[in-house]
Design a protein that fits this description.
Blueprint: H1 2-14, E1 18-19, E2 33-37, H2 44-49, H3 51-61, H4 67-79, H5 90-100, E3 104-105, E4 110-114, E5 126-131, E6 139-148, E7 153-158, E8 161-163, E9 168-173, E10 178-185
Parallel strand pairs: 1-2
Antiparallel strand pairs: 2-4, 3-10, 4-10, 5-9, 6-7, 6-10, 8-9
Helix pairs in contact: 3-4, 4-5
Length: 187
């Protein structure tokens, strides 16, 4: 019984603050952030800003929308009356599409939120390191695709460090909300 308790407690410690199997917070960051599986309920704040954006995120998570289709969807949302809650220009979406290039999704979207104020870098942005088991050396241009609920805009947040050995990605975010890991994958 003692051995079983020890094994269970170690597993709980390793996944503390995380409710998704695709992304885990390393122990140093588990007290400062939460990672939650990407569901409509988890994205309630984003849905209040742009319901159509959350619809697209859910389609991505269900496997029925690719990154290229998501970008096309963004362009269609901009044409909709009132830009469907997005605060982006057509030029910004075109720049985003070019920035995404030939990248693909590595993970589904998940909700990333600060706890206890998060960890701030020298610029006052949130410094986050995530453990992503799917990361491999066959991936380059590793980054995060982020929908900012504060700014009602999509952005690519480039990784400041990718540790392929420990499968960890570090980046700084101005604000936190729906996020997915993207990369160029060498097939």
């Amino acid at each position: 019984i003692l051995a079983a308790t020890l094994i269970v407690s170690q597993a709980v410690t390793a996944f503390a603050g995380s409710k998704t199997s695709e992304v885990v917070l390393p122990n140093d960051f588990a007290a400062y952030y939460t990672v939650t599986e990407g569901t409509r309920e988890a994205f309630a704040e984003a849905e209040a800003v742009s319901p159509q954006t959350v619809d697209a995120i859910i389609e991505v998570n269900n496997g029925s929308m690719t990154l290229a289709q998501l970008v096309a969807d963004m362009k269609e949302l901009l044409k909709a009356e009132g830009a469907a809650g997005l605060k982006m220009t057509e030029e910004q979406v075109d720049a985003l599409a070019a920035d995404l290039g030939s990248r693909t999704f590595v993970t589904k979207f998940f909700d990333l939120e600060p706890v206890n104020g998060g960890i701030k870098d020298d610029n006052g942005d949130y410094l986050v390191t995530l453990s992503v088991p799917a990361i491999s050396t066959a991936m380059t241009e590793v980054a995060f695709l982020h929908f900012s609920t504060d700014r009602a805009a999509w952005e690519v947040v480039e990784a400041s460090d990718v540790d392929y050995t420990n499968k960890e990605i570090t980046a700084s975010f101005k604000d936190l909300s729906p996020v997915a890991v993207i990369a160029k994958v060498d097939t």
